[in-house]
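Researcher: Please generate the 3D structure of the following complex. Treat every line as part of one assembly.
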Amino acid sequence: MASAEHAVPAPPGVDRGAVWRHVSLQNAPLILSLLILLGTTGLYIVFFNSNTGGLPGSFELTSLANTTLPLIFAALGQTVVVLTRGIDLSVGGMMDLSNSLAAAEMHATLGSELLWSAIIIAIGAAGGLLNGLLVVYARLQPILVTIATLSIFQGLAIAVLPQPGGAIPSAYTSVLTNPNQPTSLAYVAFVMLAWVAFRRSSFGIATFAVGNDQDAARARGIAVDRTKVLVYTLSGMLAAIAGLFLAASATAGDATTGDVYILQSIAAVVLGGISFAGGRGSGVGAVAGAFTLTLLVNVLFFAGINPLYQQFYQGLFLITAIVLGAGIARLGRVGRIGR
Amino acid sequence: MATAAEQTPAAAPPDPAGPAVEAVGVTHSFGGVHALRNASFSADFGEVHALVGENGAGKSTMIKILCGVLRPDEGSIRLKGEEVRLLSPKRGRELGVATVFQELTLLPWLTVAENLLLANEPRGRLHLVRRGRLWPAAASVLERYGVDGVDPRELAGRLPLALQQRIEIVRALLEKPDVLFLDEPTSTLAEREVQWLFALVRELRDANTCVIFTSHRWREIERIADRITVFRSGEHVATRVSATEDEAVTLMTGRTIERIYPHRSPAPTGDPALEVSDLAADGVNGCSFAVRPGEILGIGGLAGQGQRELFMTIFGARRAKHGTITVAGRVRRIRSPSDAIKAGIGISLVPEDRKTEGLLLPMSVRDNLTLAVLDRFSSGGFLRPRPERAAVADMLSQLQIKTQRPQTQEVGKLSGGNQQKVLIARSMLATPTVLLLYDITRGVDIGTKHDLYELIAKLAADGKAVVFYSSETEEMAHLCHRVLVMR
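Model: Done. Output below.
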């Protein structure tokens, strides 16, 4: 085969230096998000210690994981949608609906718990499907579609549970968000494995391809429309699951507790180093971002910051992370493809 | 051969005697504009078939229809003798058709390996991709097709353009097509790389593949094509086994162009309009030259030797690290393009990539033209329409830019050649003394190229100093008074 005039010697096995360079450069946003998590954990330990004289133990860890689980699921749903260059503002509404239905309908029997979990997840899928169909076939902007469905889901939630109340069976709580056993860590581990599988599946690869360049992906035979509909459906399901975890940890229902997760899920995605331009980012980062946000609340608490200023400091933190992230992104800057 | 990508064979075995691909009576319009009118085309197995024509003649549209990206409004397509309805590019692929489009389909944030092996990744348990196997699989593919110096772990968007093009070509070849379409595959490739491509094309032809390609470079077509089909205005004009360049130009444009290149005026003497002394910037190491009014100076050399950076630095789009730029005898500090354009300095740059670097595609011809000199038509911060319209009309007639309604016509809808003219007209409106023209004939058809050459000669005759770069050295040899080589 005619090749370049100068013969290039065959590479003697894998060049480890080059591999490390590539891996670190291409994963720089993820590494940054893990560093942020590490830093926030350090701060948490410092302030916890100065406040209580001890170190956080398994109780604190379990409680942390329980509190973060709803956000983890919501953030993952947001992640897959953002990977396709979309956004899902309806996650909060679906979480409202999900936790309200659980509190209103679930009885303390295994059958009821399983049945209603399944029904609620199916409703989440249906809501997500609606989002997906509108975005793809009605060709509406994701932000517009999901703002509208957010209101619809919120309205349904209030109709289901007009006042905070209802009850979540204690058995359900002990399975999902057990305050005494670290079962929540098992869920976190499961979620990470699921991400690894997603990344290596045809669906996951299609998701990344669509976010990179929709038209190029279509020309390469990727089922762009089907992929987009599926990511919104998945996001709806994950939001429903997040609502179930929310209900389990609160042991009662409230048709508005999900709302705060809209912005929190977006913040987790940002802290996770996932790009809103689509096509790149890791679910692991979203999980790290979720933990960072929960830890931040604890840090502010133990540092004795006035709770009224909590949001202000959260925002400050977020901006710092974004600026750092943008700086890192310059390192791995990629050009255009073609002309 | 490695089996990184084995395509399931198409339904019917190809009939080596009949045509590989045929379009019969195909008509297709885009919103009222006919791209193809009752056009026909046919290519055989075991041949390299060149499809030529001006921009807008319908070549890309025909290719898109034959590979399944577009569905024709009328007419039929036959693949390997059987009539088919290609409902999607995937269907085309299943039937053994692969295409390398003008717009590359690489995904910028995926690695080279992921791009090459998309939908054909090595799989393991649970049908999940084994990422560890991607890299060696891709490395062996790249080696097999003779592409060196690419790390399969590199992100596709970080590769230089020519390498992206080659990866795209390898990607198409991996599909082991029976019919391969190459739409302008060589416009970003240097000579060595063109040789690489042609060697592969000849191999494919000898293995009985049908290869169809388009190019605006006649030399290449002469070298490689077994047959040539000419399209004009959406119709099939002729299919020949060979043709001279003049015959081809006449068929493509419908008019006889006596000489492609205009007569060159004598080399001017006199004080230089622009002098560059020891200029250094990112990619430029101490360049010095001078250009006189009325002179066409070429800046040549292999692609990527700093020519673009030099142009950008003189124009103020890049920061100069040291060195001086002297305009009409006075040393000037040019820190930004608006400095360069200002009256008194008068340097104007026509960039290479009109779609992304020059024109505002959704805006009108008028808006694009007057963009650089709006203050000339405004008083008190308000734009005065009448002088603007007059200046626009004057430019349109000077450059023969064809547009019905310049006030509202979207520049993005014009043909490539007309777009290029709009860009040049914009630079001319700024009444420059020095014009920097960077690869303005890339991707432009022969008829428009001729018009542009005439224009450049006229600009020089009018006393402008022209600094000219083209990826086709032949152009520079014919047009320029002198050529400096960068390395």
